[in-house]
Amino acid sequence: MPEPSSQEHIYGLNKWSDLGYSTIDMLYLRPVRWFHRNIVERLRGPSYPYFHRKFGPVKTIDECEIQDQICFYEAEMAYLREKRVDTMIVEILHDRLTRCVAYEGRIDALDKCAKEKDALFESHANWYQKYGEMGVPHSCIDAYMKQKHLMIWMRRHPEVDLKGWATERDYEHHFNRFTIACNILISIVGGLIVNRSIPILKDKFIRAQLWGYDLNKRNSREIKIAESQSVIAADIFLILMFIMIAIVFSEHLHPQSDFPHNKFIEYLAALLSICCMILLGFADDVLDLRWSVKLLFPLIASLPLLLVYFANYHSITIILPKPVRPILDHQWNLAVFCTNAINILAGINGLEVGQSIVIAISILIFNFIELQVNLMSLQLDMKTSFNNINQCLNSDSHFQSKINFNQHELYCLTLRRLYIHLDDGLSFKHLIEHIPNLE
């Protein structure tokens, strides 16, 4: 009788071992798993992290009492921790997309890294929707008020895709940071070019008899000072502005984008006004015109810009304090005043440039303050008994009692005036889409 082979022997051992394992599993392990799944887990309830078993979650800001400063502090710390976590998630997803593009190559990355790209864009949109447009120094109260007014706006505009809007605004936010960086770089380069070009070209102006004496210094009759040097700075400024316009509108060049023709025409009209003023200023240096003629130059130069504003907005008025509106409620007068207020001081050393620097710094500070304006601007100082801000936001709503209306009429009128000023002010155009139609 032939002996069994080694393979048949191993097969027999595996068969008996499998039978033993299944018997042990049926007698000992399966009852334990059934008892744990059907009895223990049902009695224990949902599982929580370890620290939640003893200590409950921290209260959010809307659950805190008015005088409970400890609750405010805990809610603020929890909000900051959550913001750091969300920021780290965005950074991790950005790192994943960068690694995927580096591994797959830029040609194939569009298809092979689509999952990472969608995850990053969605995370960016969520982060911007929750933490964006509140400025750098903000708290959990600011975030809570933003969500409150955002919910009011969503109820009035249910047709708007909030996720798509947040993605678009997040892209605009990052593109604005890019344009600001380009603007700073171009400004530095322009200053260096002007500083280098004036010593090189001043002899050409002197040979063209465009020179004078510095009357504010002693023994200056022997030194000829080149005049009309502002033409050099103005020409370099125009060239750099042409480059900057190309950068700003580069995001609208692809076929699927709606090109903002009105905004583009405003930029071109502004540059045309600057060109006209440069030409008229150079003509003044060459022909030595009288002041009665030079007063009309800014009005002529501002005509292209005023015509474009009137064509786009059907108005050329600006928001001014109420007492001075009858006197200064004409933008063409403002253009004449601003230009000649600086030009009339050109004969005093340093005063014209110093005045321009002060004006530039004041505009920079004003714009920085206005960038902090957000949905918190709608948080009015109302009484404790009047908590329903929807009655102010809804123009069709009326207060139930005359006493209550007289008590809160000032707040609602303030809110409506705020909307009117935001609608007319050019610095607040980005806030209009957040505010419902009040009128």
Polypeptide structure, described:
- With 439 residues, this protein is mostly helical.
- Among the domains are: 8-39; 80-156.
- It contains 16 helices and 2 strands.
- The protein has helices spanning 6-44, 51-54, 69-104, 109-112, 114-131, 140-156, 162-207, 230-248, 261-287, 291-294, 297-313, 325-328, 331-343, 351-371, 390-393, 402-424; strands at residues 211-212, 225-226.
- It has a two-stranded antiparallel sheet.
- Helix 7 (162-207) packs antiparallel against helix 8, helix 8 packs antiparallel against helix 9 and helix 9 runs antiparallel to helix 11 (297-313).
- It is elongated.
- The model is unreliable at 373-439 (pLDDT under 50).
- InterPro entries: Glycosyl_transferase_4, GPT, NADH_UbQ_OxRdtase_su10.
- Pfam families: Glycos_transf_4, NDUFB10.
- It is an enzyme of class 2 (transferase).
The count of strands amounts to 2
Number of H/I helices? 16
Q: Note the main sheet.
A: 2 strands, antiparallel
* Structural classification: mainly alpha
User: How much of the polypeptide forms β-strand, as a percent range?
Assistant: under 5%
Chain oligomer state: single chain
How would you sum up the global shape?
elongated
User: What is the string of helix and strand elements?
Assistant: HHHHHHHEEHHHHHHHHH
Strand order of the largest sheet: 1-2
Q: What distance separates the N and C termini? A: 106 Å
Query: Helical content, roughly?
Result: 55-70%
Mean pLDDT: 71
Low-confidence segments, given as residue ranges, are 373-439
* Rg on CA atoms, Å: 35 Å
Transmembrane segments: 231-252, 264-283, 295-320, 332-351, 357-375
Enzyme class: transferase
GO cellular component, one term: endoplasmic reticulum membrane
Membrane topology: Multi-pass membrane protein
